[in-house]
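User: Can you recover a sequence for this backbone? Please restate the input before giving your answer.

Assistant: Of course. Working from this structure:
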């Protein structure tokens, strides 16, 4: 994952042994050598075989990596990322025009290695591969909750493993200013709570990402979401000045003053400093959610709009964007911004990132603007991988012409941080992002959700080997809640639950930057594997509940085990709640689980013997499910839809 553009399987396989030799037949750049050595270490960990670290310059080895060029010093959007991988019973050869392509080929190599009897082998294959889209990104918000460098690095490693190539670094917002400025030191001195990335951190992360074929695009939010700017330098404000860093989430009223030359002088000096840290051609200015009531009420600004024929705030923000675009142009950078910057007054070299819907992306392309789709890929919506997987930057039924389709650069996954921290971030991003990465890379017709989920299980385990904690973090959270290592029952109990969406949680809990993120909702993962497994099994039984086929019997066993295990966990967890105040909000959910688990077992019994269900049973169970769908403990049941499917199939 992602599936290659073309894959042909052949007979036989290559055993991975200590006798493997490695040859670099072409470029021997330090970047390529480091990547090959990292790959050998991962293969060594995966197979348990000690592998050589000598990289010969022979024309062929057991593993040959033939690269024509290391590529541009600063990887660009048009970098050739294609590669071929040919493996037979004696050797494997990866060829690429650039190191970026070879990096992708090496990731494919690691995924292909599999156990076979007493050894590990690489199956004989022929792969021709290239990405469908040039922009395949992940945005991490490091403002609402600061993420340490080691968290960012392990997520960059995971991005590389699934062939993403843009790390969008959200660095400025109302809740903090996270990047050091030596020109304006108060930006972090007053606006960061002491939690920020030094300039050396930024250079190190750019280097680290480049080594893995990933571009770093920084985002400096303006003119709205600017509380942290204005706490440090209040003279930049349009009118009202914030008293301190904003702890609440949502949209603030304050904004930078777009009418004063001093504002642009300040921005110009700041961005001039930032481009020395971030060499990528693209720079993100945010530009979203700027209600700016001061722009409507401050006489000086109202008069400015009148004199410049700016009819409303949107026009004034377009003026601001044009001024900032001029700064970026002088700095040899291209502007990226959220939907709100889209305005026909802007030149066509501006890139629109769509967060409000696919329609805005299409509209921008129709008017000649390049764009990146993010609207369906907001991970804080807690949608299952199977849902986001089917959303496409260019769907099969697109109305865009071929020329307009070329303007759609790709897509970007967004991980906003209102409700996560360094302990939970991995489980909110992964493994769902691996599924979306396939959408950005693989051919459009790769859309089999069930096959995707089957592969996602293996990929999820592989991702943990690069350092992610998306799997292990759940047990750590449960141990903390229980105050004990005895979490067997709590682990079974947790199978029944996943977090609600960002909006639902905010309505129920009204989180702020100071909210402790250590509840049951923070321990459980979105879209856990059991959710899809139960859904598949329920579909089988709904179609043939009384059947005796092997498939039906397997589905029946899986559901019986699930309902029995989760139901049996309830008494032990209720006992743990007595000594764990942080578990006590789950009391109502525990009672509901006991009822629903019994309902599930009853449904299995009635499906196996059609006509045996009492007349009012179905109505009663559907009422149980409806009650369980009401808000409680900011979690939802993983199996509600599957249970409804089973109940409705009972005769």
């Amino acid at each position: 994952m992602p599936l290659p553009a073309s894959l042909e399987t052949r007979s036989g396989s290559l055993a991975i042994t200590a006798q493997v030799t490695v040859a670099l037949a072409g470029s021997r750049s330090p970047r390529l050598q480091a990547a090959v050595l990292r790959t050998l270490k991962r293969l060594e960990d995966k197979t348990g075989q000690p592998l050589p670290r000598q990289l010969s310059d022979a024309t062929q080895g057991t593993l040959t990596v033939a690269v024509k060029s290391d590529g541009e010093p600063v990887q660009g959007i048009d970098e050739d990322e294609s590669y071929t991988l040919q493996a037979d019973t004696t050797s494997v050869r990866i060829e690429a025009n650039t190191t970026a392509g070879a990096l992708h080929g090496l990731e494919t190599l690691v995924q292909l290695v599999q156990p076979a009897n007493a050894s590990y082998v690489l199956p004989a294959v022929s792969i021709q591969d290239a990405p469908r889209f040039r922009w395949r990104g992940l945005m991490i918000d490091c403002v609402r909750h600061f993420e340490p460098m080691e968290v960012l690095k392990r997520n960059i490693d995971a991005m590389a493993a699934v062939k993403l190539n843009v790390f969008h670094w959200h660095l400025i917002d109302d809740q903090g200013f996270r990047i050091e400025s030596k020109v304006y030191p108060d930006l972090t001195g007053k606006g960061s709570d002491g939690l920020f990335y030094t300039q050396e951190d930024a250079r190190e992360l750019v280097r680290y990402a480049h080594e893995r074929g990933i571009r770093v695009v920084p985002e400096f939010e303006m003119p709205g979401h600017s509380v942290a700017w204005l706490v440090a330098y209040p003279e930049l404000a349009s009118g009202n000045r914030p008293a301190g860093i904003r702890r609440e989430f949502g949209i603030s009223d304050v904004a930078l003053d777009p009418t004063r030359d001093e504002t642009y002088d300040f921005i110009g000096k700041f961005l001039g400093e930032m481009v020395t840290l971030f060499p990528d051609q693209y720079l993100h200015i945010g530009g979203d959610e700027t209600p700016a009531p001061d722009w409507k009420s401050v006489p000086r600004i109202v008069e400015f709009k009148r004199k410049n024929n700016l009819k409303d705030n949107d026009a004034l923000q377009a003026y601001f964007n044009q001024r900032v675009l001029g700064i970026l142009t002088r700095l040899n950078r291209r502007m990226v911004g959220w939907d709100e910057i889209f305005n026909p007054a802007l030149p066509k070299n501006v890139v629109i990132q769509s967060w409000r819907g696919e329609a805005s992306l299409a509209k921008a392309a129709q008017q000649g603007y390049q764009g990146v789709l993010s609207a369906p890929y907001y991970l804080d919506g807690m949608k299952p991988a199977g849902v986001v997987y089917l959303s496409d930057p260019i769907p099969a039924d697109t109305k865009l012409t071929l020329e307009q389709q070329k303007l759609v650069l790709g897509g970007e996954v967004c991980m906003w941080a209102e409700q996560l921290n360094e302990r939970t971030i991995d489980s909110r991003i992964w493994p769902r992002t691996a599924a979306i990465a396939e959408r950005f890379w693989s051919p459009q017709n790769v859309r089999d959700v069930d096959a995707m989920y089957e592969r996602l299980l293996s990929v999820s385990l592989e991702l943990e080997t690069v350092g992610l904690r998306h799997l292990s973090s759940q047990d750590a959270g449960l141990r903390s809640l229980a105050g004990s290592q005895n979490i067997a029952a709590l682990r079974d109990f947790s199978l029944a639950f996943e977090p609600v969406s960002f909006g639902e949680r905010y309505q129920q809990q009204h989180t702020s930057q100071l909210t402790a993120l250590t509840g049951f909702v923070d321990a459980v993962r979105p879209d856990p594997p059991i959710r899809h497994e139960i859904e598949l099994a329920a579909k089988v039984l709904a179609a043939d509940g009384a059947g005796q086929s092997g498939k039906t019997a397997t589905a029946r066993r899986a559901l019986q085990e699930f309902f029995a295990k989760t139901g049996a966990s309830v008494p032990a967890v209720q006992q743990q709640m007595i000594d764990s105040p942080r578990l006590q909000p789950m009391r109502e959910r525990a009672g509901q689980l006991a009822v629903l688990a019994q309902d599930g077992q009853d449904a299995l019994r009635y499906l196996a013997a059609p006509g045996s269900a009492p007349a009012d049973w179905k109505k009663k169970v559907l009422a149980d499910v409806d009650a369980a769908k009401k808000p409680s403990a900011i979690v939802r049941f993983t199996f509600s839809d599957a249970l409804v499917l089973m109940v409705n199939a009972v005769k």
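That completes the design. The chain is about 45% helix and 15% strand.
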